[in-house]
Amino acid sequence: MARASATMALDFSVSWRPFFLDPRLPGGDGKDKMEHYQAKFGAERVAAMLPSMVRTFSDEGIDGYTMEGRVGNTLDSHRLLELALRTGGSEKQDALVEALFDRYFLQGQPLSSRAVLLDAAKAAQLDGAEALLGGDSLRDEVHAEVEGAYDAGVTGVPYFRVDGGGRGKEISGGQPPEAFLKIFASLAR
């Protein structure tokens, strides 16, 4: 999306919305990521996915993608993302997303770990993370938004809704820049 928007004179912001791919995952240190993916998709499919994911990240200038590490329940990471949006807007939320993605996709750390989440919040200079994670704030709001996504038929991530000129377009899955250019052009008309 960033590469596509760079080719057009666009002024926009991105808001990251919550979605649970597997709400039954454990919290804390989670579970082994590779074992989880192999149980979910099968060992052959996971083996085929890995080179594609490495290539996708590399095409974006990001080296070091790994399926190693841990995976866990993401409720608290979504609560932090909502805090970032509410207190610092889309720029603060983007900074937190970058920190979370680095820890998950490049370092194999679980986004269910309080220590990992606090480290990412510190990297994004997000105030209030420790207080948020110590209580239940924004839990109901995140669950309500996820339920709304399920009700709207969203089944996976990434899922994008691009609004402009009173109209909206939706697109899901990993998409090339050309797909976003087409949407941006149609909304600019």
Automatic annotation (TrEMBL):
Under the heading CDD domains, the entry gives:
DsbA_FrnE (cd03024)
Cite the Gene3D superfamilies for this sequence.
Answer: Glutaredoxin
Q: Which InterPro entries match?
A: DSBA-like_thioredoxin_dom, Thioredoxin-like_sf
Domain of life, per UniProt, equals: Eukaryota
Q: Which Gene Ontology molecular-function terms are recorded?
A: oxidoreductase activity
**DSBA-like thioredoxin domain span:** 10-182
Q: Which PANTHER family match?
A: GLUTATHIONE S-TRANSFERASE KAPPA (PTHR13887), THIOREDOXIN SUPERFAMILY PROTEIN (PTHR13887:SF41)
Q: What is this protein called?
A: DSBA-like thioredoxin domain-containing protein
